[in-house]
Amino acid sequence: MTEYFAIITISTPTNNATGALQGTFTCTMRVGAGTTRSAVYEHVLKMMPRQFQGGNVMFFSAEPNRTPH
Fold first, then answer.
1. What is the DSSP letter of 68?
2. pLDDT tens digits for range 28-69
3. What is the pTM of this model?
4. DSSP β-bridge partners for residue 3
């Protein structure tokens, strides 16, 4: 198992599409060997607060949660 750190920024319309609500979220998760980046992305999307569900993803990154030696 490897621990990953993921960051996602989502923008979604508000006030009848006259404004935008933007949020950046982070999480860490342990994933098994063979887990795809796409699977991590889908997992992170499912964890978003309801008001951000279906929003536009502006940024996504998932990397092992460790620093180089």
1. -
2. 889 898 999 899 999 999 888 888 888 889 999 998 888 877
3. 0.81
4. 30
